[in-house]
Amino acid sequence: MSKVCLVSDQPVLLSGFARILESREFEVSSFTTESLRAAGSDGGVGADLALLDVTAGLAFDVLADLNNRLPGCPVVLWSDKIPLDLVFKTLEFGVRGLIPRTSEPEFLVSSLKKVAS
Description:
Oligomer: single chain
Shape: globular
Largest sheet: 5 strands, parallel
């Protein structure tokens, strides 16, 4: 069972992601960007991978927070298209996958399983 850290500023999305992933044998912890920052220096966060919702825009400070709290943990972005130059920059922050917002739940699950393994 893979542990996934979900991060979004949209509570409905967090709930939907959690339901989909928990029903497919993922262990889930959910955070808003503010609650992730408030989690303390160790973050109380343990995960095999992180799913970051960037529908409100790509924020490198959030990626840096995730990278500091979960060093070495692969990050997957839930996003619309991202310019290629920014894609390359995200690699420095542990991003190892991009999942289009228009994806079906099964694509999300299979993509996260691939990144986790």
